[in-house]
Amino acid sequence: MSAERIGDWTGIIQFFSLRASSCSNGCVDMRSLRPILILTIAGGLSGLVFALSFLFAGAGAGAGVARGIAIFFGVGALIGVIVVAPIAAAELLLRRGTRPHAEVSVRLDSYTSMLMGLAMGYALASMHHHVFDLLTGAALAVIFVGTLLKTFLHTLYRAG
Fold this sequence. Notes:
single chain; mainly alpha
């Protein structure tokens, strides 16, 4: 890839990452949202998507439909909150102006990557051999928790 092409991409990335201070009327800074509002919006939208997917999946008429919608909305809201929680926690720390030391975060990030790689390898080997045991479940949990941790760290240190 030539230097001109890389420069083009850098300009595009900088264009889409502009802050509200460089915008004229009508721009909204996404960092102005409070962490509790981020969690509320994510939970509500995710719950709504899950409930609508339950309806569109062919839920028939009857007494169980309202209960199914409520269950799917609750599960969707919970998943949405869990997925967005690291971002909200990082935004809360950024608002307070506190961060862990950068070298600790870099070490934690690299150790998490290595652990996730091992867990992914074990999970893929288990799928290849058509085996699902307790260790496979633990490997999948390590991958999920590692993803949340890396999301938190990268959100916390994206501003430099």
